[in-house]
Structure formats: structure tokens, C-alpha cells
Amino acid sequence: MSIKSINVRNQFRGTIKEIIEGPVLSEVDVLTPSGVVTSVITTRSLKELDLKPGREVIAFVKSTEVSIATL
Amino acid sequence: MSIKSINVRNQFRGTIKEIIEGPVLSEVDVLTPSGVVTSVITTRSLKELDLKPGREVIAFVKSTEVSIATL
Amino acid sequence: MSIKSINVRNQFRGTIKEIIEGPVLSEVDVLTPSGVVTSVITTRSLKELDLKPGREVIAFVKSTEVSIATL
Amino acid sequence: MSIKSINVRNQFRGTIKEIIEGPVLSEVDVLTPSGVVTSVITTRSLKELDLKPGREVIAFVKSTEVSIATL
Amino acid sequence: MSIKSINVRNQFRGTIKEIIEGPVLSEVDVLTPSGVVTSVITTRSLKELDLKPGREVIAFVKSTEVSIATL
Amino acid sequence: MSIKSINVRNQFRGTIKEIIEGPVLSEVDVLTPSGVVTSVITTRSLKELDLKPGREVIAFVKSTEVSIATL
């Protein structure tokens, strides 16, 4: 199923740099213009989406999940 | 209290571009090298941190909150 | 930008039943085969996606956000 | 401790179909009227709640965690 | 519907100290032995649960949502 | 990088009691005045922060992640 657009404002386009596969969850590191963005998804989804290093993806996150720190 | 470091791998340093203040929650738009990152935090925290447009901040998010989409 | 597929396993297709619009965040109630699924998104996203009652959408959520209770 | 009710609007009653147990986190797949809802919880909670395939449970999620996509 | 137990390990029992009601979301401040725990829930849930200052409640959060910082 | 302050209202200072290390994610149990607070973070972060039992840390969580139940 193709999705036209999603409500998520924070989208980071990049290339998968590395995958650490676990029994239930896996870490996917995506190289973006802002540096590496790390995502943790189920290993099932990893396989269903056929994610592999070098593949172009979008990492995204809901605004309500983003925190702010001052320096 | 000063924090030395946090476990959150995804940190985006930038400058506050715009704030939309609501009665309970507020939207903070942060201009980063990857574009605008949008955060929603309580209006109380907005005031306690004295956030204002132009102020330098870090937007951050836990890896378990980041999703992946293929193009 | 069209997205081919996302990692999120929990997808609920339905029709928007009601929208409660706030200054920063809005509530979107989606009628699905399992009943009403409630989503809270930024009012900016609501307008950008041009969401209105009657429109067909997919409500989705990451597996790490889902809790389990016993009866 | 018995809980009378919770604020979470999105509740999906169903039967556990499958469990994938990991060292720290486990995946619990719940068969509901809307299809399978996948939850990831700590393996400690899995054992404390004595979750097993066939057991009736409620999968639930906060509204702020639910995203919306258009087709 | 009464729930027997939930998978959420982090539960903080306390008394509601203050409520800030917004059009879509409301802030509920709960006084616990560790200090005030702040929760943001939909205003609909606030009314359905009939939450008011002085009422005893449990604030809870999934382990995957908890971050760690060093001092 | 030292962070001056963060927007997260819910902060629980305590001592690490136990760590369960997994291949991708690890569980960190922090003993606080309210009891044990459980956090799940990436094993990479665990190692980068050099977390070990006995170390003093702050467990924190965004208000939008906190749910409320009545008794």
C-alpha cells in the first residue's frame, strides 16, 4: 500500500549505514545531512521492508516525541 | 542542575525559529542543518527554560521513537 | 513525496469521524473496524494534510508504544 | 492492584496469537477485530503478567502516539 | 471495565495537585513520594475519568519511554 | 557536551541497581525514592555512557508519555 503523505513533520532522508540485528528489535543507523539518526524497529519490520546498508530511507518522528535542551 | 550526558543518540543542534504558544502545550520549531525540527513541549517547560526565537538549543529524541519508511 | 511502505506494523484504516481543533494540537477521531481510534497531531499537520471529517486515512502506531493489560 | 480505568482512549481487546521472547524485550502479537496488533514490552513484564498464546488481553496506546497518513 | 494488571513497570501512585485544562489536551500534576509527576492527556479522557484535584491516581509510563542522563 | 537544562519535567534521581544487557537494547533499573524506575535504552548508549550498577543517574520522561489510571 502506497501512502501519499503522513502527519509527521520531522522527516530525515538518508542512507542506511549500519544495522544491528537482534532477536526481537534491531537498530538501524541512517546517515543524514545532520549526522547519524538511530532508529529501533522490530526485526520483523526490518525483514518485511528488506532494509540493508546502502538503501535510501526516511527516518521520521512525531513532534510530541521531541524534547528540547538548552546549552 | 547540569547534566553531563544523556543516552539519547539523536540530537539536533539548532536555533529556535518560531514558537506557537498554547494554553497547555506549545510548538517549538528549531532550524537545524537538516531543516526544521518540530518539538511539542508543555507551555510550563517553555517558560521555565525561557525559550525564545533565536535561542540556541538541542532537539533530541529516543531511538525507539524513530520510524523508518522506504521510498 | 510518496512513501512506499513504513515499518509500523500497527495500521488502522478508517474514516475521520470528528476533529477537535486546538491552537497547537488537534484531536482526530478515526472510525475503524475496531471502533474509534484517537490521534493527537499538530494543528499544522492537520492543515497541511487537509484532514476533514469523512476523509479516509490510516492511523498507525509503533509497536514499542503499545502496552498490554490483562483482564 | 486492580485499576478501575485508564485515560488511554485506544484499547484493542483480543487474544495473544504469538510471542517472540528476547533477552530484554519481547514481541506480543494480539489478534483483534482489526487484525493483529503488535506490542513490544519488557521480557520481565511478559513473565510477571504470565502472558501466553491464547490468553485474552487488551492492547492499548496513548492518543499522542498515534500518527495519521493519507492514502 | 476493570483491568487486573498492566505491563507497565513504572507506576507512581499519588494525588492530583493541579489540572490545567486546554481545548484538546490537559496537564495533570500528580503529587507522589518522588515529587510532582506531570502527565498530559486528552481533555476528553480528563472528563471521562472525572479527574479533579485531590483524587488519588496512578501515573504510569512504559520503560521504552524512559531516558537516562548522567550527572 | 554539557546540557544546562532540559524541558522534561519528570526527572527521577537515583542509583543504578541492575542492568540486563541485550544485543540491541538493555534494561536499566534505577532505585529512586519512589521505588525502581525501569528504562530501556540502546546497548550502544549504555556503553557510551559507561553505565554500571551503583552509578548515580537521572531517569526522565516527557509528560506526553505519562498515562493516568484511577483506582
Written account of the structure:
The structure is a homohexamer of 71-residue chains. Chain A is mainly β and 71 residues long. Chain A has a domain at 20-62. In chain A, 8% of the residues lie in helices and 56% in strands. A four-stranded antiparallel beta sheet of chain A has the order 4-3-2-5. The first copy, chain A, starts with a strand and ends with a strand. The mean pLDDT of chain A is 92. Chains in contact: A-B, A-C, A-D, A-F, B-C, B-E, B-F, C-D, C-E, D-E, D-F, E-F.
Secondary structure elements and pairings:
The structure is a homohexamer of 71-residue chains.
Chain A: E1 5-6, E2 10-21, E3 25-32, E4 35-42, H1 43-48, E5 56-61, E6 67-70
Antiparallel strand pairs in A: 2-3, 2-5, 3-4
Shape of chain A: globular
Percent strand of chain A equals over 45%
Physical arrangement of strands within the biggest beta sheet of chain A: 4-3-2-5
Q: What is the oligomer described by this structure?
A: homohexamer
Structural class of chain A: mainly beta
Poorly predicted segments of chain A = none
Task: Tell how many strands the DSSP assignment of chain A holds.
Answer: 6
Helix percentage range of chain A = under 10%
Arithmetic mean pLDDT of chain A = 92
Number of helices of chain A: 1
Query: Which two chains form the greatest contact, residue counts included?
Result: A-B, 38 and 38 residues
Instruction: Please compute the radius of gyration of chain A using only Cα atoms.
Output: 13 Å
Distance between the termini of chain A: 43 Å
